[in-house]
Amino acid sequence: MKTFCSYYNQDICRSCDLITLDYKQQILKKEETLGHSSLLPTVESKELHFRNKAKFVVTGTMENPIIGLSGIENLDQGRELLDCPLHVKEINELLPTIKSFITLAGLPPYQIESKKGELKGIIIFHSSISNETYLRFILRSKEAYDRIKKNHFSLLEKHPHLQCISINIQPIPHAILEGDTEIFITEKKSINHQLGNISFSLGPRAFVQTNQEVSTKLYETAADCVKGSGYKRFMELFCGQGAFSFFCAPYIDSGLGIEINPDAIVEANKTAAKYQLNNLDFKSADASLVENEIENYRPDIILVNPPRRGLGKSCELVLKNSPKMIIYSSCNHETLNSDLEKLRAKYEITKIQIFDMFPHTSHFETLVELRMTEII
Asked: N or C: at which end does the chain have fewer Cβ atoms within 10 angstroms?
């Protein structure tokens, strides 16, 4: 079946496993997959040019580099993706320039079998409202630093929205995309990312949702849940740079965010200070090891936004401390449903809604509001 994507039609990329379905059928399939009868209407996305972050592997040769998506087979046969219809246009327009830059700067792509070469991949993030873009080169070593530094102005001149460039050193010959060392090429070390009324500073390792419009609606909906509850003590686990907390800030007296990434916490506290949100505080800690923080803080509401593996030990911590309300944001319906089974020992689902962050794929985000059974 022919689709709007030439890469799918040519059997180059099969990442979008629902692309042959009409968009309304995709939504119905996701609602059936989640399997809850009391779903609110799904928050839908634009169907094209919504994805603002992309990770690519680079193969081929320095004279003819091949830029493609991670996990795509046969890239060594010359298959690449330079114009994915899901990516925002700024990413697609940048890729041919990067392809030429690889040759200009003398960046030999890494060869897995021989373990030779330097350039392993690239990561691009574009913020639509601020119109700023971050580009990272994933390299095996620092060998190409001087050549990138010498020639990077050619990228900036052609694409003024490109504000930040860095190189990430990943020396391990395994399927690990990023390493621990980040070296900045540009003077700027972050870009501005606007969500609602808050502008976040995004550095190289910052987590951000890949669908800016739908993620904003997700944060707004969670804030509406907090506002409607009337509860005033709020805690966010797995908070990243605190997006949920900042949206909820107008409706609470006190908010505490917990995140294991210390860089994210530094940025979250900077953002709170910038907007004089004295009711928010952020702390770096493992969300599964914060029993004392929860017991001492005694939140009315705990919002959790765990990775795909779900809450893990944090589920028991939440149940033990029994906040009046739980708000759960999940990108994995299987671990979500598993966690919800445990939480139903004390809580009942009062709202559940899909946010279609990833059209044409089986993935989706879900927001769930739960309240203690005895106070419903």
From this structure: N
In the sheet where 301-304 sits, what is the strand order?
280-284, 254-259, 233-237, 301-304, 325-330, 365-372, 347-355
DSSP β-ladder status, 198-202 and 191-195: antiparallel
Say if residue 236's pLDDT is above 50.
yes
pLDDT digits (tens, 9 = 90+) for 195-224: 999 999 999 988 888 999 999 999 999 999
Helix, coil or strand: residue 130: coil
Token pair recorded at residue 124: 């691009």
- Determine contact, residues 178/156, Cβ cutoff 8 Å: no
* Maximum separation of any 2 CA atoms in the chain, in Å: 68
Do 281 and 256 contact (CB within 8 A), yes or no?
A: yes
- Residue range 246-291, pLDDT digits in tens: 999 999 999 999 999 998 999 999 999 999 999 999 999 998 888 8
Enumerate the active-site residues: 331
Kindly write down the DSSP assignment for every residue of 231-283, as one continuous string: --EEEEES-TTTHHHHHHGGG-SEEEEEES-HHHHHHHHHHHHHTT-TTEEEE
**CA dihedral of 143, 148, 149, 152, whole degrees rounded to 10:** -170
Contact 279, 255 (CB under 8 A): yes
Q: Are residues 81 and 87 in contact, defined by beta-carbon separation less than 8 angstroms?
A: no
Residue 86 gets the label, from left (phi > 0), alpha (psi -120 to 50) or beta, of alpha
Residue position matching structure tokens 């908070």: 239
Cβ–Cβ < 8 Å for 248, 231: no
Per-residue pLDDT band for 374 (boundaries 50, 70, 90) equals low
